[in-house]
């Protein structure tokens, strides 16, 4: 059996609406899902919420920017009906709700979704919540933004950080080292065996996203056993890697 860890992308988002408690619970129901990737932003009144887009339009029946809405009005939105009628009434979850479900059951790759100074205080709000729950060792905080990762380390150097990298050029291994990260989140199309080996030797975990086809999962597994496979379809990971 292959050892490549299965990471549920925004929960089991192939079947449930992404970044909802339904998607989280469906991922938790699969015993081989050991990690989950989620996205976190701040409401106008400073509550960390789990949602990917900077706007509400695609994944809820609301409109406008996440940062312009308070938590309680956001909770009244339907974040599941867009996926199917079966998920009508799903809410935009708070990070706290997801932490409570995941605690002691799987680890979390929490992407801090921000750009520039869009969310002042995002890093502190997330760190404080995770620390209050005693879950610092169960998470890695990731971002495309080097400044975000540096602020996390300044606030609490004990937190693991990870760089999200999607450039077609450059040296991700060097960038990770410069930022003091122990995790690299990278498009599966950008990774190769040499990079995976180098990062593993340096103690850096590599997660490849977003891999939904068995053929690509096998290709990554053949490159290196340490490559974590982030997928919308953890069931396909199970069908591909688990011994019958």
TrEMBL record:
The keyword Transcription does not apply. Keywords: Hydrolase. Pfam families: GDPD (PF03009). Residues 4-241 form the GP-PDE domain. Its EC number is 3.1.4.46. One of its GO terms (molecular function) is glycerophosphodiester phosphodiesterase activity. It is an enzyme of class 3 (hydrolase). PROSITE patterns: GP_PDE. The keyword Transport does not apply. InterPro entries: GP_PDE_dom, PLC-like_Pdiesterase_TIM-brl. SUPFAM superfamilies: PLC-like phosphodiesterases. PANTHER family: GLYCEROPHOSPHODIESTER PHOSPHODIESTERASE, CYTOPLASMIC (PTHR46211:SF1), GLYCEROPHOSPHORYL DIESTER PHOSPHODIESTERASE (PTHR46211). This is Glycerophosphodiester phosphodiesterase. It comes from Paenibacillus auburnensis. The gene is glpQ_1.
């Amino acid at each position: 059996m292959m050892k490549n860890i299965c990471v549920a992308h925004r929960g089991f988002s192939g079947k449930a609406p992404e970044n909802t408690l339904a998607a989280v619970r469906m991922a938790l129901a699969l015993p081989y899902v050991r990690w989950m990737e989620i996205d976190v932003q701040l409401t106008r009144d400073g509550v960390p919420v789990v949602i990917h887009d900077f706007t509400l339009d695609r994944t809820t029946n609301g409109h406008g920017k996440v940062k312009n809405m308070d938590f309680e009005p956001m909770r009244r939105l339907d974040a599941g009906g867009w996926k199917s009628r079966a998920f009508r009434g799903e809410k935009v979850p708070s990070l706290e709700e997801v932490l409570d479900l995941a605690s002691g059951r799987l680890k979390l790759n929490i992407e801090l979704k921000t750009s520039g100074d869009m969310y002042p205080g995002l890093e502190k709000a997330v760190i404080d919540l995770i620390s209050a729950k005693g879950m610092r060792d169960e998470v890695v905080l990731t971002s495309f933004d080097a400044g975000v990762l540096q602020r996390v380390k300044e606030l609490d150097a004990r937190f693991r950080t990870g760089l999200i990298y999607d450039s077609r050029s450059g040296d991700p291994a060097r960038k990770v080292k410069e930022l003091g990260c122990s995790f690299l989140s990278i498009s599966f199309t950008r990774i190769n065996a040499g990079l995976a080996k180098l990062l593993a030797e340096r103690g850096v975990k590599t997660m490849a996203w977003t891999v939904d086809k068995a053929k690509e999962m096998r290709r990554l597994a053949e490159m290196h056993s340490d490559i974590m496979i982030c997928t919308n379809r953890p069931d396909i990971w199970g069908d591909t890697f688990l011994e019958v």
